[in-house]
Amino acid sequence: xxxxxxxxxxxxxxxxxxxxxxxxxxxxxLELTDAHLVYINDKYVLDEKVDWNxxxxxxxxxxxxxxxxxxxxxxxxxxxxxxxxxxxxxxxxSRHCFKPHDCEFWQRCISEKxxxxxxxxxxxxxxxxxxxxxxxxxxMRDVPNRFPLNPKQRxxxxxxxxxxVYRSPELTRILLPWHLPSVx
Length: 184
Fold this sequence. Notes:
Elements: E1 2-4, H1 12-27, E2 36-40, H2 52-55, E3 56-60, H3 62-65, H4 72-83, H5 106-109, H6 126-134, H7 151-162, H8 171-175
Parallel strand pairs: 1-2
Antiparallel strand pairs: 2-3
């Protein structure tokens, strides 16, 4: 079996995917001698004609799949249980929606969130995001003043609360060499 990925290296999730496909193939009576991951060779340089064998790396990952195989039946059972639901599962949007890939339902899931959703606080930690959500704080306007934030985060939250534009006191000094009009 050859699994082709648009990547320049083998990733953990690739091995999980190949383990699942290997399990399904074998359970359906196919005999596999090995499993390979095929990915882009980032050292490849295009000449006059594409050399397909040089463009791709092909690596036997059969032995790497062994640790993943025991959990495959449980993963398949979980997938079947989700597929049999009458409604989409209630999954809270968060950073997990971008790992290992961006979720195609992100916009749909956040459509009810306010524009100043606390998820958009710059570099908010998962723990802080979880804490705010545990207090049902969705909007930056509702972040308690005593909630610990770094100065940049605090500035963003304060702007969301006040609705006023923030102008750095350093802005004029930084822009002065550019000889911009003095409307700032």
